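User: Continuing from earlier, I have the next pair ready.

Assistant: Great, send them over.

User: Here they are, in order.

Assistant: Folding the first of the pair now:
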Amino acid sequence: MRINGEELALSELKFSEYLKERGLRAEFVALELNGKIVSRAEFETLILKKDDVAELVCFVGGG
């Protein structure tokens, strides 16, 4: 699978665990998976598969 251009040699990955490992909060993340936007409501149960291509965008505040 590929996440933000990084190739990961995994057969499956629970997306919510991926976020936790990286210290990311779901409410500040947008996910495109295989060319389609994924609803945040699906993040907790989403399993990425080996051929998936994902792009994450993290929102940050500033002033």
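And the other member of the pair:
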Amino acid sequence: MKDPVIEEIKRQCGKVRPLNNGWCHFVYHHLHYLYIPDDSNGMIRISIPHVVNSKGYKKERVDSAVNETNREVRFIKAMVLNNGSVSLNYDHWISKDENVMEIVEHIITTLYMASEYLVLKLKSK
């Protein structure tokens, strides 16, 4: 599963940089993404590890924006990490009938849209 996913990320985003831990780093619309391969080869996990630093906002505002993003953007898990970064994750268990190209494109664009939504919610409250 790993190779088709990486090939599709390359097709959409250009350069994919492998990391020492087996993960892959890539950039889409100036945001840094991670592809985190699953050892069981059944799941595609892609993350934007840093959308925004929560330390620049009141905790209540961050919590509200994260919760609203989780409610309104399907399949996305937004969370505040210990270092203050707000992260977005998308996990997808792929079935044998699914098209990897379509799924990867959907995941990348959904994460991007969720990042825009989250930032908009942080700035508008």
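Worth noting for the second one:
The longest helix spans residues 100-124. The CA atoms of residues 45 and 59 lie 27 Å apart.
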